Amino acid sequence: MREYKMWINGGWVGAESGKTYTVVNPATEEVIAKVPLGDKADVNKAVEAARKAFPTWAGKSQVERSDIMNRIAHAIREHAAELAEIETMDHGIPQSSAIFMSYAAAEKFEWAAYASKNIYSNGDVLTLQPGNKILLQREPIGVSALITPWNAPLLMVAAKLSVSLSLGNTCVVKPASITSLSTLKLGEILEKLDLPAGIVNIITGPGSTVGEALSTHPDVGLIGFTGSCETGKRIMELASRSIKRVQLELGGKNPVIVLEDADVDTAAEKSVSAQLENTGQVCASPGRFYVHTRVYDEFLEKFISGANKFIVGSPDEKETQIGPVVSAEHRDHIEKLIKRGIEEGANLVLGGKRPTTPPLDKGYYVMPAVFTGVKQSMTIAREEIFGPVACFMEPFSSDDEVIELANDNAFGLSAYVWTRDTAKGLRFADRICAGTVRINKSGGPMDEVPWGGFKESGIGKDGSKYGLEDFTQLKVISVDTTA
Ligand code: NAP
Ligand code: MG
Fold first, then answer.
1. For the chain, which has fewer Cβ within 10 Å, the N-terminal or C-terminal residue?
2. CA 369 to ligand 1 centroid distance, Å
3. Protein residue whose Cα sits closest to atom 26 of ligand 1
């Protein structure tokens, strides 16, 4: 079993306390590594290193920083297979998806390198009166704390780190404690590139200590966070003490609206994939299906038949499409919600049990599940399940009503509309309260396109020039040119 260290100020160190914790392979339940149990003392060291590194890093030209981002991307590509193996072992994501995520992580750095140099505007000039020029200048903020979730560990870190670092901030990364190994491997990759000490620091340990210490540290200027709504609220509260900038990518309970004129085959096929991808541990997963009464039976039947075809298996096997969920704790959370759904009167028409046949009798597996008859007030209609569980709401017949029901939720991350009438789809999009509305399509966000929620799903964006703006602050310099 390998014992890891944290990456602070360009060196590998254990926790000041000397404590460690163990991490488990969710497919086998075996302990795979020991990781330092960081706490406030380690956070202080990392923030101090990042603070000291900031002036020099921020003072480099954008061309130089972008070159470094491209070197990082290249090194990630070279280690893609190794990173994917670590991700599968630590997170349980099937190899086929894990390798795709390694390359997607490299693309984040390539995108940041290009966008921060060529697309993003870090300045403007206003000439409102003769003799007066107003320079608008975007600057890095300083030390950024990047706190990320376990559902796509390396990719989530890459999304924040690439942008923040590229724009001249220095970074303290806190990956989710149960899935920090791919981020620590990224630290080893960065070490070989001989980057300035302190520009990237990686601290391992739980949110309750490491995350809170980062969120309250006076020298942290920005928190880039992806995770649950509950933690986002806590971070905002802690960050308010010193008015830190917060960029929050939080949860969703994403409505899928299937209209009576939808291409039911395509809608069902794509919705199954969107629901079961990464064992449902995706923020954009369908959370609530609203299907028109005229196509409800056909859509449901096709959805169930599609879900039945998905191969649940060991994440190391090539043909596996769905691996285990990330931890025993998360499996228990999903099972608790399934139980609550049944108690509150929804009908469990597919799955939801643990597999019992070896080798799947070990590991944190949950079979794909489908509920029907879900009512708006039920827990499973309101809370994010973050697992392979589809919730079919009662069939609808009124467009106005379904839009109201879709919007009746605290989250506003994303939504899906299926219709052959694109103009109608666009009218729905205007009225749906979500950061992203997809019409006749599903699939992940692209780096070029902003991603971020409305309402309790977050503040700010990942990706695109808008996402880049979140990692800078705007300075106004007003000059009297006649003086
Ligand atoms: P989480 O429980 O909120 O944890 C996210 C990160 O916050 C982890 O690193 C966690 O540390 C840390 N943390 C926990 N408590 C903290 C505190 N009091 N102060 C500071 N940091 C703290 O989320 P998760 O369970 O890992 O991930 C699932 C959630 O992420 C879902 O809600 C999902 O929708 C959301 N998500 C959103 C997006 C998006 O783009 N909108 C993308 C992916 C995931 P430890 O876990 O180490 O304790
Ligand atoms: Mg959590």
1. C
2. 24
3. 149
Report yes or no: 168 and 79 within 8 Å, Cβ to Cβ. no
What residue owns the CA closest to ligand 1's atom 2? 228
Tell me the catalytic residues.
249, 283
- pLDDT for res 398: 98
Q: What pLDDT does 1 receive?
A: 85
Q: How far is the CA of 1 from the centre of ligand 1 (A)?
A: 27
Neighbours of 230 (CB within 10 A): 11
Q: Which of 170, 231, 190, 158 is nearest to 72 (CA)?
A: 190
Mean pLDDT, 10 residues at a time, the chain of 483 residues: 96 98 98 98 98 98 97 98 98 96 98 94 91 95 98 98 98 98 98 97 98 98 98 98 98 98 98 97 97 98 97 95 97 98 98 94 97 98 98 98 98 98 98 98 90 98 95 96 91
What value, to the nearest 5°, has the Cα angle with vertex 203 and ends 201 and 204? 155
Distance CA 106, CA 76 (A): 6
- Ligand 1 site, residue 329, Cβ cutoff 6 A: no
Among 439, 402, 436, 433, smallest CA distance to 419 is for 439
- Predicted TM-score (pTM) of the model is 0.98
- Residue 38 Cβ contacting ligand 1 at under 6 Å: no
> Closest Cα to atom 17, ligand 1: which residue?
207
Does any ligand 1 atom lie closer than 6 A to the CB of residue 149?
yes
Q: End-to-end distance of the chain based on CA atoms, in angstroms?
A: 69
Residue with the smallest CA separation from ligand 1 atom 34 is: 251
Distance 228 CA to ligand 1 centre (A): 5
